[in-house]
């Protein structure tokens, strides 16, 4: 993983979040990543955003029950109306507090106007 950026979320999955293999559902972590990316994109866009794409997703290792999951996000690139946010997920695992890289991906958000149509991003 590259530079992680800021910790946007820190959560612990629940028993109801596991699949038949005893790992946390991939959809659960995708949701957490979308929330974290959306928080950062909203701040950059200074208003509402919508997720329009998930690219370059990589599941590195399973998430286990009992992991404390930290979701990091940072701006990867910016277009006229869209923002790509790199999201990295790391677990704090076990009594020794081992840091385990779990997954990463790039989420693209588009800034929305009052009519839910794309709008230009604010100038820096």
UniProtKB/TrEMBL annotation:
Belongs to the acyl coenzyme A hydrolase family. This is Acyl-CoA thioesterase. It comes from Sphingobium cyanobacteriorum. GO terms for molecular function: fatty acyl-CoA hydrolase activity. The keyword Amino-acid biosynthesis does not apply. The keyword Hydrolase applies. Keywords: Hydrolase. Pfam families: 4HBT. It is an enzyme of class 3 (hydrolase). Residues 3-115 form the HotDog ACOT-type domain. It comes from the Bacteria. Coiled coil: none annotated. Its EC number is 3.1.2.20. Signal peptide: none annotated.
């Amino acid at each position: 993983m590259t530079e992680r950026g800021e910790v946007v979320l820190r959560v612990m999955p629940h028993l109801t979040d596991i699949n038949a293999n005893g790992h946390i559902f991939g959809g659960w972590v995708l949701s957490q990543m979308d929330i974290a990316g959306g928080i950062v994109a909203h701040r950059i866009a200074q208003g509402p955003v919508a997720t329009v794409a998930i690219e370059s997703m990589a599941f590195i290792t399973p998430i286990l029950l009992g992991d404390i999951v930290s979701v990091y996000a940072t701006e990867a690139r910016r277009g006229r109306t869209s923002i790509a946010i790199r999201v990295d997920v790391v677990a704090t695992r076990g009594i020794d507090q081992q840091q385990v890289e779990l997954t990463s991906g790039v989420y693209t958000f588009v800034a929305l106007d009052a009519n839910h149509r794309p709008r230009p991003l604010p100038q820096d």
